[in-house]
């Protein structure tokens, strides 16, 4: 198996899971670079929920899922719904 990203689960609700890429990136690949594997790793926990992530640059985005697999990167919705500003790198 490939070296997996190092991330934490920051928030779980009935509608979403929010993860944060924590690196260190000289040792671990980023969530962005291993999106397919991250979605597969979390598949059992998703149960139809959306998967949002804070990337290695501190930006909030969505890992879009179709048929149980990663399909594309999506923009983040209104950040106040997901997390405090400190998770997004914005104040």
Describe this structure in words.
By secondary structure, the chain is of the alpha+beta class. It contains three helices and five strands; from the N terminus they run ββαβββαα. It has a five-stranded mixed β-sheet. It is globular and about 35 Å long. It starts with 6 loop residues before the first strand and ends with a helix.
Topology of this structure?
Elements: E1 7-12, E2 16-21, H1 35-46, E3 50-54, E4 60-66, E5 69-75, H2 79-82, H3 85-88
Parallel strand pairs: 2-3
Antiparallel strand pairs: 1-2, 3-4, 4-5
What structural keywords apply?
5-stranded mixed beta sheet; globular; single chain; alpha+beta; 91 residues; 3 helices
How do you describe this structure in short?
By secondary structure, the chain is α+β, with helices and mostly antiparallel strands. The chain is built from 3 helices and 5 strands, in the order ββαβββαα.
Helix share bin: 10-25%
Most strands sheet: 5 strands, mixed
Report the C-alpha radius of gyration, rounded.
Answer: 12 Å
Total helical elements: 3
Which spans have pLDDT < 50 for at least 5 consecutive residues? 85-91
What share of the residues does DSSP label as strand, in percent?
25-35%
**Total strand count, please?**
5
| Structural class by sheet pairing and helices | alpha+beta
